[in-house]
Amino acid sequence: MTAEVPRGRGAHARTASSLRLVWVYPDLLSTYGDRGNLLVLQRRARLRGIEVEQVLVHADQPVPREGDIYLLGGGEDLPQILAARRLRADRGLYAAAERGAVIFAVCAGYQLLGTEFGGEEGQPVTGLEVLDIRSGRGERRGVGEILCEVNPALQLPSLTGFENHQGVTTRGPGVAALASVLTGVGNGDGTEGSWAGRVLGTYLHGPVLVRNPGLADLVLTWAAGRLPPLADREEQWTQLLRSERLAAVTPAP
Amino acid sequence: MGKLPMRARLATTLGGAAGTMSRLAGRGDGSVIGGVIGLRLEPDLLALLSAGRQIVLVTGTNGKTTTTRLITAALGVLGQDVASNAFGANMEAGLAAALGKAPNAPLAVLEVDERYLPAVIKATRPRVVTLLNLSRDQMDRAAEIWLVARRWREALAGAQGCWVVANADDPLIAWAASGARHVVWVAAGQRWQEDSWCCPQCGSHLLRDELGWRCGECSFRRPSTRWVLDGDRVIDSAGRVSDLSLSLPGRANRSNAVIALAVAEVFGVETTQALPRLRDVASVAGRYTRLARRGRQVRLLLAKNPAGWLEAFDVLDPPPAPVLLAVNARGPDGKDTSWLWDVDYRVLRGRPVLVSGERRLDLAVRLESDLVAFDLVEGVDEAVDQVEGHSLDVIANYTAFQQIRVALGRAE
What is the spatial distance between Cα B71 and Cα B264, in angstroms, rounded to a whole number? Predict the structure, then answer.
């Protein structure tokens, strides 16, 4: 666990006044309400007075290099393989990663950031190698509510979400687990998700940033700098939903 | 039933008795239990019950129950008995029960769960397979839709003497059907396109214009169609134009009706004969009817997935008419509510929106994000009491819909 918590670009400077959110390949990677993660980041940024520009990049378009946050969603096997092939050829996401842009990826998008993932017959497929992780196909599909304790270095409350995947993911040195699993499957070894620098991936959809506003704000902070808290009434429904979901998966005493 | 082997006869008799007892005991409508018992006694029951009949199978993500009903109505022109699983029991047991209950019907119109289509094709040797549309639905228990399309394609390619009536505007449907020998292509429209950005054949981006869709890289493109839905009119295979003027509301039902007309033609039923029968259908399994409740008219709409919600919005009375949204996440609904984020709720701005159901907080957060004002209510009666005006439209997913039907069935 040598990963370091990145300081948002505004750790010392002022909060950014605008953000460019790039949704990568919603035509290939948007199976489980992935738009929700985009909408939540947009809402929480705008409530802080940050202007948001949404850029939806289809698989036949070049990935812009100048985005602040790149989102990759979930997808079926064949679209995942196709997305990996196109992103490798396009190079735009590599350029963004080198610049230190934030990359937030879910499920199939998470797997394809790694060096390798399992194809439709379980065969190894070369990933983007943006994150030193390796994924393959597990014994059985993990489907259901998942509850995790976040890596203490990130100082976030528990994660709640829904997972639906058959992936098993291992990390190389320099990549930390996002969380440890209390209920559910996650990476398959008791951990869930991965992060290194400003690249973060998770098996949670649900969508994950809706139920986990702390994680949403972490992602925003990496890109925009320190953020003031939201007013209670702006968090009211999110917190009610979050409490309900946490109660639904926490075993009764 | 004279031709059925003894075992199958016994299986249907016992199954039928169980269905009757289930109905008498007040457990469900008895449409499945008989089939379950029958199939346990005779695994080939579905094949045996299908033998000698002309069978129409109907499948797709949305519109199965309604289209099954419309085709049954259209085939009524022939004056023969038609067996049908009219209440949506669409897995093997439900199909066997429907056939077992109508042993002498020479025709059968059966809706089939998407996952079971290949097995049911094999067992029933259908004359017609009807493919409506394919989009994301209950991903926590259903197979991924590209996989479903691939299995359909394989099953249809091997089906002898079978006609496929298919919606050419849905690329996944077109791909699944294009492996079949005989296809009647229908331009039935496709509102929800979020699951068909990519070519099912090669995965490249699909190009769309007013003429339809085509792959930017390989040769796969929208087939030319014999039947066309054009606004509220149908253009039939002979090029004749007729007004649909259905009682059922919405674009999706006009699409279902055109497909039903194309199926009817395979059986020699003309559009002019079938249309009056389709217009008589005003309610399907509790959907679309207006029920009086506490001095207001309540209309129930079922929507189970993003494409279904899009079609339901199309049916709503115009603003400021109020709407109640109800969402559950039990087994039959899919336990994953993430699909709520695939629905664009902004069209609901400018009307009173009430929210109920076991997962109303998921909906609340979703609506807040789309800047749609809403109020939480406990149930349909509270919603009825709260709204002004004469009517209330209700959009609910599967078990939420059933709960509201039960609530409305109770005395006021």
Answer: 7
